[in-house]
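This part of the workshop introduces the protein records we will be handling. Each record describes a single protein and holds just a pair of labelled lines. Instead of coordinates, the fold is spelled out as a row of discrete tokens. To make this concrete, we reproduce a full record directly below:
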Amino acid sequence: MATDYYAVLGVQRDASQDEIKKAFRRLARELHPDVNPDPKTQERFKEINTAYEVLSDPQKKQMYDLGGDPAGGAGGFGAGGGFGNFSDIMDAFFGTAGQRGPRSRTRRGQDALIRLEISLEEAAFGTTKEIQVDTATVCATCSGEGAAPGTSAQTCDMCRGRGEVSQVTRSFLGQVMTSRPCPQCQGFGTVVPSPCAECAGDGRVRSRRGLTVKIPAGVDNGTRIQLAGEGEVGPGGGPAGDLYVEIREKQHPVFQRRGDDLHCTVTIPMTAAALGTKCPLETLDGVEDVDIRPGTQSGQSIPLHGRGVTHLRGNGRGDLIVHVEVTTPAKLEPEQEELLRKLAKLRGEERPLGQFQPGQQGLFSRLKDAWSGR
């Protein structure tokens, strides 16, 4: 045997393909003509390419181990005078090489998203919903194979099942072999001569199906619930993606939600604010009386603790905040006006001077202060 290809690459005779490949990449980075133009180094570079061309091919490696020399002699570029594999040389410099072998027809499906509208009560306490989704499912006719019943995929006669075809071109470095996906089988390595008529060879069809979704208590607008494996089935009957249910909360006629707290406004006349009263309020837990104490002022808030939305992550609930708005009558009957005047006289408020306090400034006042540096 004129040349010991294992010694050329610096590996043992029982080295694995990964070890052979790593040794070749390391030497290729050191000895490539673009890195080291010395003529002796170029000869050495040709030797490692020849060695790798033989040892990386299982059939050529077997022939070499039995005493033959598939490269046709010592050193050089082998029988064709070219590189063993151009993509492996590129991988030595740029870190990755293209995927080898045929690609699978079976791939994971995409995730799907639907929006579900629920009421405030359902969001606060949780619920269970039945939904209908339109997604890709496995074709029942071909069971995801893509071939018509009674037929099957066949090995591509162009690439012979490899999923790629090679082409040899000449360059200043000699003959260069490049690979690209097979145009006939699109890189799958197999062709389907008789596609399934139901799914047109895709292995999946679109259909509507029903699902039960459990909505946890405390969800809010934009909350997404993940249903693993309920999304789109992948091509070739591949595993399904996930389904995400995005919550949309309906607007409530009385309550406004802020986090887990609920807010509402009760409007009462000035007499009720002065004397006090009780106002029935339909809460999420039923009717409760809101206690308006005598002397309540407009803008005051009355909290009802634990009457809000359930905390999504944790125990307990938020609060229900009742905001009080006191109205003043715009028009009085003569008898009502007389009674109010008597009340004002009794309280010494016939000509109140009022109390002025700093408040919001107008536009011109703010501009004046800005120019004066205040």
Notes: The two ends are 97 Å apart (CA to CA). Residues 39-55 form the longest helix (17 residues). The CA atoms of residues 1 and 67 lie 7 Å apart. The longest strand covers residues 127-138.
